[in-house]
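Hi all, posting the design record for the shared folder.

TITLE: backbone redesign
STEP: 1 of 1
STRUCTURE INPUT:
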């Protein structure tokens, strides 16, 4: 590898990289192996630079309809902004670019130079499932992003950079060789993925980055990555302008996030952010979130997720409401509205009691995992009580993601049954599914709670037209409530009941008081012909066959 000590080259006479968001200067550093690497900073960073920067776009989004107490959620203030992360097609890390607020120094950029050897370019081929036709997959496509080497011969990048991967390759700075990588873990909710490479040659001459402490407001940060449109590394500088709980678009959850004013280019996803001492402070998912992901994998051998208490809460701002519950003016807390039935301590926590000291609880749980215990203080009947409650990951009736697994389905007599998830709603109704999906499905998505760990919301996705299902052709995305008078819990339960049914008729009770009745023998005999007609390999997904 080349010498890590790099000197700033001569100032360029003209700008070399420009887009509609920000004008940048590419500064060449001397290095025998990587003479073309460009270190870009906002053009108005020094008094000698004649160029000027323009504001970059900010992340936008709609507020969540229901506030649920996440372990990383702030007790005082919960962000209602969805954050577009790093400009990669709306899939994102919790980072927002703003117009520069404070001009960083060149010394900050120079300190990052030795750590650049640990920043790699990630190439991925994706093959997404087709949730509307779950027995198929969509056409494959390729993407590039960034990542960085950490201890233990591992590499971190964004989850969305390797989501639904079929092949992942990594390329080091200054090298033309691409090394095949293995995905060790994907944390969809925090948008982090961990990779490794089996080839020893990849690790030669590469030192892992060191993690620093959580930065403070106005601390200088330097973002490193490989933007789309070139093979050279890019470095942009800025300061931390905000740090609080933000909505992670990719994971549909709320976790601690940073907002910086550095330009984040497409392709930079997964690239690290360094402080003025050359230590990694995130990318720009903050260090505590990254360390939770890493330690979770090391502890459990897989990523298990961020634990939650499992309650929905109400603000206690109204003075009459506070007085009626016996809350003093100097006390802070929130009222519990509902408790998730699947939460381990649902029998302990009851509606209308108050959580106190939530800030300490939030910080305490940032370092905890599913199955750990947390001490909470509640106010019940004007008396403060302490509980040692067990934490668990959140079980949603309509999951926010399918964790890279193939979608489940079951077909009988042309009726395609599926379990509803947020990716399914997006597949059926587009990105604006919150406006276009059926009202009853949206109501369950926003407000309903799972009554058991394995409960799913089942629908008739569509009806593949055949003689046997005449009159039922218009049934689309309608919830299935019961089969032969028995309530349904999940798709596997439905498939088992239908396959083992010896009754004369198959009777499905649907929402809106609809009913589907089919003769059992005729329905099962017709299924094979319908599968052949539509080139469907099996009447059920592999996960239902066991």
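Okay, here is what came back for every position:
SEQUENCE:
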């Amino acid at each position: 590898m080349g010498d890590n000590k790099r000197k700033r080259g001569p100032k360029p006479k003209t700008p070399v990289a420009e887009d509609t968001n920000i004008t940048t200067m590419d500064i060449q550093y001397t290095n025998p192996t990587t003479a073309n690497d460009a270190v870009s900073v906002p053009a108005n960073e020094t008094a000698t630079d004649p160029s000027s920067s323009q504001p970059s776009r900010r992340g936008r989004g709609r507020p969540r309809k229901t506030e649920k107490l996440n372990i990383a959620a702030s007790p005082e203030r919960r962000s209602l902004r969805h954050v577009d992360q790093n400009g990669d097609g709306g899939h994102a890390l919790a980072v927002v670019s703003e117009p520069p607020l404070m001009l960083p120094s060149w010394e900050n950029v120079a300190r990052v130079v030795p750590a650049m050897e640990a920043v790699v370019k990630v190439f991925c081929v994706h093959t997404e499932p087709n949730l509307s036709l779950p027995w198929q997959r969509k056409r494959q496509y390729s993407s590039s992003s960034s990542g960085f080497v950490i201890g233990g011969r591992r590499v971190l990048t964004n989850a969305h950079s390797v989501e639904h991967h079929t092949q992942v390759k990594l390329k080091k700075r200054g090298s033309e060789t691409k090394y095949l990588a293995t995905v060790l873990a994907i944390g969809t909710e925090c948008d982090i993925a961990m990779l490794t490479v089996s080839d020893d040659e990849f690790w030669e001459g590469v030192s892992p980055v060191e993690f620093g402490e959580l930065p403070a407001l106005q601390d200088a940060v330097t973002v490193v990555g490989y933007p789309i449109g070139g093979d050279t590394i890019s470095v942009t500088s800025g300061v931390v302008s905000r740090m609080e709980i933000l909505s992670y678009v990719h994971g549909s959850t709320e976790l601690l996030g940073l907002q910086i004013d550095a330009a984040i280019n497409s392709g930079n996803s997964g690239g690290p952010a360094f402080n003025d001492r050359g230590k990694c402070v995130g990318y720009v998912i903050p260090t505590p979130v990254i360390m939770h992901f890493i330690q979770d994998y090391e502890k459990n051998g897989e990523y298990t997720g961020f634990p939650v208490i499992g309650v929905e809460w109400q603000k206690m701002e109204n003075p009459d409401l506070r007085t009626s519950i016996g809350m003093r003016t100097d006390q802070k807390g929130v009222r519990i509205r509902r408790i998730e039935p699947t939460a381990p301590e649902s029998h302990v926590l009851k509606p209308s009691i108050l959580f106190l000291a939530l800030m300490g609880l939030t910080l305490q749980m940032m370092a905890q995992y599913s199955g750990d215990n947390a001490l909470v203080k509640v106010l019940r009947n004007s008396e403060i009580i302490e509980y040692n409650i067990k934490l668990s990951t959140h079980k949603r009736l309509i999951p926010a993601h399918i964790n890279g697994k193939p979608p489940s389905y079951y077909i009988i007599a042309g009726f395609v049954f599926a379990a509803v998830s947020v990716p399914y709603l997006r597949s059926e109704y587009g990105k604006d599914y919150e406006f276009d999906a059926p009202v009853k499905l949206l109501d369950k998505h926003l407000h309903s709670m799972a009554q058991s760990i394995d409960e799913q919301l089942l629908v008739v996705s569509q009806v593949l037209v055949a003689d046997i299902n005449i009159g039922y052709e218009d049934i689309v995305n309608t919830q299935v409530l019961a089969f032969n008078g028995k309530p349904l819990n999940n798709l596997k339960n439905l498939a088992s009941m239908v396959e083992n049914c010896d009754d004369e008729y198959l009777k499905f009770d649907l929402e809106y008081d609809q009913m589907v009745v089919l003769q059992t023998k005729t329905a099962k005999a017709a299924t094979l012909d319908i599968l052949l007609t539509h080139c469907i390999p099996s009447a059920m997904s592999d996960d239902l066959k066991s």
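COMMENT: Residues 1-104 have pLDDT under 50 and may be disordered.
Let me know if anyone wants the other runs.
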